[in-house]
Amino acid sequence: MAVESPSDAPPETARYRQLSLPWRTLLIVVGLSAIVLALNQIMNLGFFVGKVMLDTQYLYVLCALLAGCVFILVPANKHARRHGVPWYDALLFAANIAVFGYYALNAHRIISEGWEFAAPEQAVWVAYVGWAVLLEATRRAGGTAVFLVVTLFSFYPVIAGHMPGPISGLPQPLSTTAAYHFASSESVLGIPTRAFGELVIGFVMFGAVLQYTGAAHFFNNIAFALFGGVRGGPAKVSIFASGLMGSVSGSVVSNVLTTGVVTIPAMKRIGFSPAYAGGVEACASTGGVLMPPVMGATAFVMASFLGVPYVTVALAALVPSLLFYLALFVQIDGYAARRGLKGLPRDELPDIRKTFAEGWHYIIVFVLLVWMLLVMQQEAIAPFYATALLLVINQFSSRYALNFKSLGKLIEGICGALGELAALLAGVGLIIGSLSVTGLAGTLANDLVYIAGNNIYVLLVMGAITSFIFGMGMTITACYIFLAIVLAPPLVAAGFDPVAVHLFMMYWGMVSFITPPVAIASFVAAGIARAAPMAVGMKSVRLGSAMYFVPFFFVLNPALILRGSPLEITLVVGTAVLGIGLIASALEGYLLGVGALHGSAAGWFARLLILAAGLAMALPGGGELGLSHMHLSLIALALAAMGALLAWAHRKAASGVTASP
After folding, report:
1. Do 329 and 220 share a domain, yes or no?
2. CA dist 2 to 215, 223, 362, 632, Å?
3. For 297-335, how does the pLDDT look when each residue is reduced to its tens digit (9 = 90+)?
4. DSSP per residue, 450-466
5. What is the DSSP letter of 168?
6. Residue 602 — very low, low, confident or very high, per pLDDT cuts 50/70/90?
7. Cα 378 to chain center, whole Å?
8. 177 and 264 in one domain?
């Protein structure tokens, strides 16, 4: 039998209001206008004859259309009206249009007159209003935790001069801070919003169309047919699908939006919590960009910096990326085992041959998407072509063909998804703007290296922190280029392998994709999972833990990036595999062959022993540690044996108590 996909009839999320026909019509008009505007800008169609729209002007208009939609769709709180739009939300919606519309109309003046630091008084007052409106939009879209973080960071420039030591910055008056947030291209219109307007919007649309057509049903049934019977099957599907997709597209966000719309509902279907499902997809998609053979543009830039062939970089990245996915796999398997998520009985799973015969034509859509991403390298326009083909193919399905009513619901769904993401990413931009206007991002690297002194371990930690902070404020390529100039020389001079150093910076630059407060991959996955963004971010931190450990391991011993003698590489990679497996088991609280590692003091102590064993097993020996790799491995085996025996003895004793009369 076929497994019913969540996308068969996309339900209205409980977070959204029930809207009247005029408001629904307005949303449809707004959604279509945003899509047409994006098509014109991205594909250079020339709809506006004799008028060239600046990139900033385009983003202002896009935010004017979309960011305010959260006021129409999402009530202010759980006690607010859920039928119809109250007057204050209509006013906030209009205020959002007015603020961004004002800056769109003055886009040329903003550039020519330098409004970032010399805005007229009227523009400053408009920015004050926009600041307050955007913070509320961020709260509606991202929740209270995101709102508090964004608010604190957005006001940081005003108090930057009073902050201690390395986290102090160039203070700015409130008026300059407000104007900079809205008039510069580094804050509200910074990296997140630019990524949204130039890339994400097409993939959000593609994901929404997948949910409202038969394609999602087909791919969910394929996933269930192949893996639905194994423990935690759909989550394991996410690892392979996202790893493959990310490795060829080189984009984290597009990876989440392409594969997550299929894997996240499938995970929720068998019992994974929404936050955990979103965290799995965010981590799997982030890891895909670190996986050969393609790895995105940054790897090619890295090869140029190092003066080595690209294949050297790709081979060096192979083992670390596999270790990352191993840790993710082990944690997912432990989560499923502890919660009894064994998958569905085979008689409840769809027949693979019948499923493929009914929906094979949907594969053409993904072939087109991957071909345009990989071969043509047209990442921005690929989802638009794929969406158009999907809509055409879908109309040949008697079950899923769209009529005017369902088409209206589809456009409403697209507008809702775009609106929430636009508000959230524009709000996250306020964080980046605060780091930029105070100069904190530009001085922190030198400060951290100075603080580290001559201690190579402290220097590595400082390098990781610096890479993480820069990863929040730049694209990964821009972050890598800056750090390769500023931070790589002192690390290489300290005696570290150059390839390992450059990979180290790339890894820690990617950490911000799954680590709050920015965590763009987690926030995008949260929208698909319909979970709180911060909750998904915290799950991502735990699931993606290997991304925090592995860079230190391979920079301390380049054998993990296949640089060394065959015997050393074999030994180091083998112990790293065992170590990462133990670390992941301890983090998830489940050890294969033993069972759960928590629930009592003995269980938690066993878990700590397993974690220590994993770290000792994976940590390279030598250097200032004073212990060889063999010594560390023997210590790890002893700790692991103690932890496993303790957990086994505790479980046996507990079983005896349970069984006794």
Report:
1. yes
2. 14, 11, 17, 51
3. 667 677 777 888 767 887 888 899 999 999 999 999 888
4. HHHTT-HHHHHHHHHHH
5. -
6. confident
7. 21
8. no
Percent of the chain exceeding pLDDT 70 equals 84
Reading phi first (left if > 0) and then psi (alpha if -120 to 50, else beta), residue 36 is in: alpha
Do 235 and 137 belong to one domain? no
Which range of residues forms the domain containing residue 275?
211-398
Residue 308 lies in a domain: yes
The closest alpha carbon to 475, from 521, 510, 444, belongs to 510
Note whether 276 and 379 are same-domain residues.
Answer: yes
pLDDT digits (tens, 9 = 90+) for 421-455: 889 888 888 988 888 888 876 666 566 666 766 67
Give the pLDDT mean for 166-183. Answer: 88
pLDDT of residue 11: 39
H-run or E-run covering 595: strand 595-596
C-alpha dihedral over 41, 46, 50, 54, to 10 degrees? 10
For 416-427, write each residue's pLDDT tens digit: 888 988 898 888
- Dihedral sign computed on CA atoms, order 49, 50, 55, 56: negative
The verdict on 113 and 140 lying in the same domain is yes
The residues near 494 (Cβ < 8 Å, ≥ 6 apart) are 456, 459
Is residue 477 in some structural domain?
Answer: no
Output the CA–CA distances (angstroms, integers) from residue 650 to 104, 112, 221, 392, 614, in the order listed: 66, 72, 41, 60, 21
How many Å apart are CA 134 and CA 182, to the nearest integer? 10
Task: Answer yes or no: do 83 and 153 share one domain.
Answer: yes
CA distance 193 to 67: 11
Considering the domain architecture, whether residues 186 and 242 belong to the same structural domain is answered as no
- Structural tokens at position 461: 């930690």
Same domain? For 180 and 249 the reply is: no
Q: Give the tokens for residue 84.
A: 């119809």
In a domain, 51, yes or no: yes
Number of domains into which the chain is organized: 3
How far apart, in whole angstroms, are the C-alpha atoms of residue 187 and residue 473?
9
**Residue among 648, 630, 8, 530 nearest 277 (CA):** 530
Query: Is the separation of the CB atoms in 286 and 547 below 8 Å?
Result: yes
Higher per-residue confidence, 221 vs 661? 221
Q: What is the pLDDT of residues 223-243, one digit of tens each?
A: 667 776 778 877 887 787 777
Residue type, 364: I
Nearest CA to 188 among 24, 429, 387? 429
pLDDT above 70 for 474? no
